[in-house]
Amino acid sequence: MAALSAWFWNERFWLPHNVTWADLADPAPGVEYPKAGHLLSALPLALGIFAVRIFFERYIAGPCASILQIQVELSRRAQPNAVLEKVFTSITKSPDSRHLEGLSKQLDWDVRKVQRWFRHRRNQDKPSTRTKFCESMWRFTFYLCIFIYGIRFLWQSLWMWDTRQCWYNYPYQVLTSGLYYYYITELAFYWSLMFSQFTDIKRKDFLIMFVHHLATVSLISFSYVNNMLRVGSLVMCIHDSSDFLLEVAKLANYAKYQRSCDFLFVVFSMIFFGTRLIIFPFWILNTTLFESWEIIGPYPSWWLFNSLLLVLQVLHMLWSYFIARIAFKAIMRGKVCTNPPYTRFLSFSLSLPQNWFVFPLSSCWKAVPVFQLLS
């Protein structure tokens, strides 16, 4: 394990030229640099956040849902059947006509009865509106709090107003308590999302979201150990700036406040467009690609981090292209395509879990009922 750790944390890969881990391990008195051991504190904090979420959803979000008259839907449960349950869990949740006919003969059931069983069984796994409301209210609360903390912290930071400060004297940049709490809290939150996936109702995008959370945890962890905290804090703040608006729009949808939902989603869309497609490439990528090259020069992990940021930007552009196509079709037809594959595609984001994306065509809001997109 020691040999594997030494190979993985090769300083020739992670650090600029003529810098070693030993240089960062023994700073001057009163000076603190990020260390890999600091990341372990995120795990107990993640468990604490997970416990707070359970308390919040049960004793705060739940009563709010009751006040708004959002009740648990009583869906009809499928009749217990070992044969069909085995097919459902290990083969397919939506059998085709050939499977239906074979199961019909095997059980001596009518084909429509088999279809009905699978429909009821699929509905059992769908979270209720009340469950989704409580989850969105928790996410809204966390995203809003962490965004307020981040923007207040960064407002007093030099590197928010001059991004070249992200690279001066790098990697010998002091770790402040505010930056430490910001980074570790974000990391702990995504660890808690990974924990909760195994206790929440399993959804179709379970694997996708698990990979997403794992990638996010990895990027935050590597940027912390590599002491790219300054530019990393800017990236996190940009992505947090629109997430809470999305969640409050979903809350309005679940409560059936249609006009509020539409208005909030329009605001979310404009902020998403401005942060992801304007600020991110012209502010963040500009400093990570050009200013850092000028001040510290490239090194192996520099190429890795910038490649990941460029991939993220390409995905932002790709998502906008697909959404523009769907929005255009919605305008022409006067309605949204509600085919589940389309809505599931829109719901996944590499940057932050549960992200939805902007409609670049503002005129579509007159033709498209927004609540159909906030599933």
Automatic annotation (TrEMBL):
Keywords: DNA-binding, Endoplasmic reticulum, Homeobox, Lipid biosynthesis, Lipid metabolism, Membrane, Nucleus, Transferase, Transmembrane, Transmembrane helix
UniProt membrane topology term: Multi-pass membrane protein
Membrane-spanning segments: 36-56, 140-160, 180-199, 263-284, 304-324
GO cellular component terms, A-Z: endoplasmic reticulum membrane; nucleus
GO terms of biological process kind: ceramide biosynthetic process
Catalytic function, reaction form: sphinganine + octadecanoyl-CoA = N-(octadecanoyl)-sphinganine + CoA + H(+)
Homeobox domain: residues covered: 84-128
Principal subcellular localisation of the protein: endoplasmic reticulum
One GO MF term: DNA binding
Residue ranges flagged as DNA-binding region: 86-129
The keyword ATP-binding is assigned to this record: no
Signal peptide region: none
Positions of the TLC domain: 131-332
Annotated PROSITE patterns: HOMEOBOX_2, TLC
Compartment list: Endoplasmic reticulum membrane; Nucleus
Superkingdom field: Eukaryota
Pathway: Sphingolipid metabolism; Lipid metabolism; sphingolipid metabolism
SMART domains according to UniProt: TLC (SM00724)
Family annotation (PANTHER family): CERAMIDE SYNTHASE 5, LONGEVITY ASSURANCE FACTOR 1 LAG1
Descriptive protein name: Ceramide synthase 5-like
